[in-house]
Design a protein that fits this description.
about 300 residues; alpha/beta; Serine Threonine Protein Phosphatase 5, Tetratricopeptide repeat; 3 domains; 5-stranded mixed beta sheet
């Protein structure tokens, strides 16, 4: 693409802002050369383009959220027709706008056309950053927070998830992670308050829904845990008291005894399949949702459930 160079117009890259207006004259410096250091999105737009008025603010919002790890260059196709023709000759389709091209290492890495919703723009940018061996600041914080949770450092995890939300409040995994960290700390009221603050657009996300279930399970379990000894006595006197065994499972889960909790529910199903409108199986599924689909306890109990149901 050297024939696009205008040596008189090239500028130093280091001090450039994250979001700039581009042109034919500055394209080599602002896009091609700059992309050797940081991925660059080029927003090809026009004043008469309705979807552009929706997409451009979304692009700007997303780029700002990534803390300097990506750049946005906006180019008006009507004011830069020669550039558009040169890019078309290189295989970049600009017959319609908006078109967004991603540049990395001086080459076009990917592109999309049309006004995508914010979630899709974020996925596009995340893929570009992954290609460039980078990630969003909030993504780094979320990864650190998850590692802290795995090592039972819930307070540290809560702080990291909170920091991720300060960087980018549109990360459902950060909201869900913060809720789970607060549950681990026994701060159910704070977890419920956080759930109430989640932006409506994220409310139906799978991770948010699972976090809500986790809070519900935790609250039910803490109430049942206070009756643990009483429930055990009931079962000692009547091993077929399925209601007591289900309550015991909830209490065991609340005290961290997941294997025993799952086994108690499976035992109900072994003794009386379908008891109380399949309450034991449905409670076990709630546990799976709360624990996480990839959790080791979930997978172990799911295997036992499958063996029981298909035996």
């Amino acid at each position: 693409m050297d024939h696009l160079t205008d040596s008189d117009a090239q500028r130093p890259i280091g001090a450039d802002a994250q979001i700039i207006e581009g042109s034919q004259a500055s394209f080599m410096a602002d896009v091609v050369e700059a992309s050797r250091k940081v991925p660059v999105l080029v927003d090809f737009w026009a004043t008469w383009c309705g979807p552009c008025k929706t997409l451009t603010p979304t692009l700007e919002k997303v780029v700002r959220a990534y803390g300097g790890r990506i750049r946005l260059v906006k180019i008006d196709i009507d004011e830069n027709r020669a550039l558009v023709q040169q890019l078309a000759s290189l295989g970049l389709p600009l017959q319609s706008v908006p078109t967004v091209a991603a540049f990395w290492q001086g080459q076009i890495a990917d592109l999309f056309q049309g006004a995508l919703p914010e979630s899709e723009v974020r996925r596009f940018v995340d893929a570009l950053l992954k290609l460039a061996g980078s990630s969003a600041p909030s993504a780094d914080l979320i990864a650190q927070a998850r590692a802290a949770m795995e090592q039972n450092r819930a307070e540290e995890a809560a702080s990291l998830f909170g920091a991720a939300l300060d960087e980018d409040e549109n990360r459902p995994e950060a909201w869900a992670g913060l809720v789970r960290a607060l549950i681990a700390l026994g701060a159910d009221d704070r977890a419920a308050a956080i759930l109430a603050e989640i932006p409506p657009a994220l409310a139906d996300h799978a991770e948010i829904a699972a976090a809500k279930t986790a809070l519900s399970v935790a609250q039910e379990g803490r109430a049942a845990a206070r009756q643990l000894a009483e429930l055990q006595q009931k079962l000692a006197s009547n091993e077929n008291d399925h209601a007591a065994r289900l309550a015991l499972a909830v209490a065991l889960n609340a005290t961290g005894n997941r294997t025993e909790a799952a086994e108690a529910l499976l035992d109900i199903m072994r003794r009386q399949r379908g008891w109380n409108d399949d309450a034991a199986r449905l409670q076990l599924l709630k546990f799976f949702d709360a624990w996480g689909v990839d959790d080791a306890d979930t997978m172990a109990a799911r295997r036992k459930l499958s063996a029981l149901l298909f035996s």
